[in-house]
Write a structure and sequence with these properties.
6 helices
């Protein structure tokens, strides 16, 4: 009898903030709610509220720091379990994976934050840089 209730619950809809918490995108439901309200989470391409009902097959775009993940909902859950279970709730798109890998490589190489020049500045260029920084 208990198994039937849990399967009925899993087949019904789940709140977006609960699903994100159960899928381990955020540590707490409160943080998940803040991210949704702050515009860091898009549900089917649109901003939404944290109480939005999630259904299977929907796409969710989640921004976490430098990374942006686009996932498709495969299963529903409103309780947080281990990480292996959480990964069965969604599937990340191949485009999202490729973009994240490319950005991670660029961050490792330092391309995004400060592109390196081919040569070091000479004495005159260093003086100009120092003067410029002092004016700011």
């Amino acid at each position: 009898m208990t198994n039937l209730k849990t399967t009925d619950k899993e087949n019904s809809s789940t709140r977006l903030d609960k699903w994100l918490w159960a899928a381990r995108f955020y540590r707490t439901r409160a943080i998940a709610k803040q991210m949704i309200d702050g515009g860091k989470v898009f549900y089917n391409g649109q901003r939404t509220k944290s109480g939005k009902a999630v259904s299977i097959g929907d796409t969710i775009k989640v921004r976490q720091g430098f990374e942006e993940k686009e996932v498709t909902v495969i299963a529903l859950a409103d309780k947080r379990k281990d990480a292996d279970f959480a990964q069965t709730l969604y599937e990340e798109s191949t485009n999202s994976l490729a973009t994240r890998e490319k950005n991670a490589l660029a961050r490792k190489q330092g391309i995004l934050l400060s592109p390196a020049s081919d040569t070091k500045p000479d004495k005159k260029q260093r003086r100009k840089l120092r003067e410029f920084k002092e004016r700011i």
